[in-house]
Design goal:
Length: 722
């Protein structure tokens, strides 16, 4: 590196450090004077996700974030990204702006090529994640969300076999008639949103209907259309002794084209024009087209000092899912059946929470197919039947399925118990001592006729019949303490462990995979004042046997690293600076390293293990920060401006190349509300910055870029029935 470049790099690092200090300082300066004053405090959000016990967030000895109703109403909420993107330690983006989301919490989920892994996702206390922790969001109606809670890392009672923590989505209550609304929205790229929620109470019973249609053409990028139709019917009943019984039946049909990545040439063209006309990958027609039925019913009954919360849930789904090299289809619908039996005992010293979880996923007759028509090196640019084509596949011609390649029949069974004592030895103390223990058993019968071979770039004979059985035991103990130093200022510390269940696709490709073990040590401070609040923490998370994705020329392999260490600092806060004005921001700093890891790398026809000890994990930026300012007028006007930054990160496990990240991508919302009518203008990526949401480099040196969305604009009219 030249001296001039070194000076520029040092200057940039100094500016970044000063920027970080400025964010923390601006949001913290008003705290000390506020502690000394009297008066009414700003109401704290209530959280249940970390402990299964409703508490103000300031009293929870866990790093948590809550996005409330008012904040969500200012967003168009086409994707969960919009609710989660301003949280330190949470890295989220979307390939298509629809239900698809790339989500990482403190490094958990990094290995997932699509969907959400290693993080438990729930809706109203009901798990949406499969027993192997894989989560699809295609049947979540983002227009019917009251609030979102995020509990980061090991140590919460909801996270079964998920070391990354838990995200809980709370929908609008069936009993809340104030939630009735009609919403109509239009935006660029032929974006549409139609939503109706109407409910009514009938004495001790209530019914609520919700219907939503969302669509985006995303004309700035090839093969990137999205639409979804979602219907829901909720029923609620008030029983004797303040007991409640609630049920919901919903149906979703979602269609998403998943765009491919770009090489360096295409990416430079995107930076210049904001358009992606094609993909450099051979697999040009990836997508997910699904239909999902979802039912859940739950009872909450109080008997003396006991509260019982049994839940029963069932979902069944079909999908047509073209991906790299193969097309997946569930010929028979997949079924997920589960129950969670939860009970609370309130005693003089605190609360004891315990319960039992059972969940089974059955995937009968799941099939994989070749792509029907392809272009190869010997086809002269013409489409040919894949069953007879010769030469390396250069491109797919459509997403139509061809010859049957594989039949799979799989079952996954998760059973778990949990117990936590929340002891209050004094007015200012809370001590949480808990344990969750899960066992996951997988059975898989597979018959492979054909497979895609990356070395030759064509379909070759498969491996025939295989039978796999795997069982993983996942203990997750926790000790957490919260102490209120002065009114509104809570110090907390936590020691927690969680096991991470490998997904079925991971151990199918590598039957020797072990379950990772994550041990987290954390200390933090939470402040709640009349006009301000903040959360900050420092953590060290050691992960043994971490599952790492190794990409060799397009082939994803999954291997256990010996050990990784994730160290981080997080801060978030907000401050009311004047009548109707609020200022806030967040900062996350990370240092994630492999302490011991041998990466298998193909060199010619052989595989060589390369030592990556001391290297930094890819894709996780060292710095992540943002600011927001909000304004609300008594006359009905309101506005919110937020801006977010991801710092540079390594592209590969070998740390051979960096992506500089992106700076101050800004979102704006402006709205006016009067007598139940409101109009909101949302502009995401206000200044139309062109950048990559993800950049990767495989062990052969191939670099691919996934484009982030340019400026999107949407105008929404909403009417609240009152």
């Amino acid at each position: 590196m030249t001296r001039k470049k070194q000076q520029a790099s040092q200057s940039k690092s100094t500016c970044i450090r000063r920027g970080h200090l400025g964010i923390v300082t601006v949001l913290s300066l008003a705290a000390v004077p506020a502690w000394a004053g009297d008066g009414e405090q700003k109401l704290d959000e209530i959280s249940v996700t970390a402990t299964r016990e409703a508490r103000p967030t300031g009293e929870v000895p866990h790093a948590i974030s809550v996005v409330g109703k008012e904040t969500l109403q200012e967003k168009k909420m086409f994707n969960m990204k919009e609710a989660l993107q301003e949280m330190p330690g949470v890295f989220v983006d979307s390939k298509n702006g629809g239900f698809d989301a790339r989500l990482i919490i403190r490094g958990a989920g990094l290995k997932a090529p699509y969907g959400i892994r290693e993080i438990q996702v729930l809706r109203d206390g009901v798990p949406l994640s499969d027993p192997d922790s894989f989560t699809r969001l295609d049947f979540v109606d983002t227009q019917d969300i009251e609030r979102v809670e995020v509990a980061k890392g090991p140590g919460n009672l909801f996270a079964a076999g998920a070391a990354g923590g838990a995200i809980q989505i709370f929908s609008r209550s069936v009993f809340d008639e104030r939630a009735n609304n009609l919403k109509i929205g239009f935006g660029n790229d032929d974006t549409k949103n139609f939503h109706l929620r109407y409910g009514k109470n009938f004495g001790d019973q209530a019914l609520a209907f919700t219907g939503t249609y969302r669509a985006m053409d995303n004309s700035w990028r090839a093969w990137n259309q999205f639409d979804t139709t979602q219907l829901s019917l909720k029923h609620g009943m008030l029983l004797a002794n303040d007991a409640t019984w609630e049920s919901e039946l919903s149906y979703a049909e979602a269609n998403a084209q998943l765009p491919g990545a770009m090489d360096a040439t295409l990416f430079q063209n995107f930076l210049a024009t904001g358009k992606q006309t094609t993909t450099s990958e051979a697999w040009k027609h990836s997508g997910r087209y699904s239909k999902v039925w979802f039912f859940n019913t739950k009872l909450e009954k109080e008997v003396g000092d006991f509260v019982f919360k049994p839940r029963l849930y069932y979902n069944t789904w079909y999908h047509y899912h073209p991906v790299t090299g193969i097309i997946n289809e569930t010929e028979q619908w997949v079924s997920n059946l589960g129950a969670d039996l939860e009970a609370h005992w309130r005693h003089s010293q605190g609360t004891l929470v315990g319960g039992l979880t059972v969940r089974q996923e059955r995937t009968p007759d799941s099939r994989k197919y070749q792509y029907a028509r392809v272009i190869t090196t010997t086809s002269g640019g013409q489409c040919r039947d894949s069953a007879t084509a010769t030469g390396r596949i250069l491109a797919t011609c459509s997403d139509a399925k061809g010859r049957l390649a594989e039949i799979d029949d799989a079952t996954a069974l998760l059973t778990g118990i949990y117990l936590q004592e929340s002891w209050r030895p004094g007015k200012r103390w809370i001590v949480d001592v808990g344990l969750r223990y899960d066992k996951v058993k997988f059975t898989d019968d597979n018959q492979q006729f054909w497979q895609y071979d990356w070395a030759t770039g064509r379909y070759v004979a498969g491996a025939g019949r295989t039978h796999t059985e795997k069982t993983y035991d996942l203990p997750a103990p926790k000790l957490a303490v919260s102490y209120e130093l002065v009114d509104g200022l809570h110090l907390f510390g936590m020691l927690a462990q969680a096991g991470q269940v490998p997904s079925q696709s991971e151990f199918s490709s590598n039957p020797s995979l072990d379950a990772p073990l994550s041990r987290n040590k954390e200390i933090g401070l939470k402040g709640r004042g009349r006009s301000w609040q903040f959360d900050t923490s420092v953590y060290v998370n050691d992960v043994s046997r971490e599952i790492v994705t190794v990409s060799n020329g397009g082939v994803n392999q999954y291997v256990n690293a010996g050990k990784t260490r994730r160290k981080g600092f997080e801060f978030s806060g907000s401050l009311t600076v004047a009548e109707g004005w609020e200022l806030g921001g967040y900062l996350g700093l990370t240092d994630y390293q492999y302490l011991s890891f041998s990466e298998p790398v193909r060199v010619g026809s052989t595989t060589v293990n390369m030592d990556r000890s001391g290297k930094t994990l890819p894709f996780i930026p060292r710095e992540q920060y943002g600011l927001f300012v909000g304004w609300k007028s008594p006359s009905g006007w309101k506005a919110r401006l937020s801006s977010n930054t991801w710092g540079e990160y390594w592209l590969d496990n070998a740390n051979t190349e960096k992506y500089p990240g992106w700076e101050w991508v800004t979102n704006l919302s402006v709205g006016y509300e009067r007598q139940g009518h409101s109009v909101t203008l949302n502009v995401d990526n206000l200044f139309d910055k062109h950048y990559a949401m993800e950049v990767k480099k495989d062990t052969t040196g191939k670099v691919t870029y996934m484009a982030a969305a340019p400026r999107t604009v949407m105008l929404t009219y909403r009417y609240d029935f009152r």
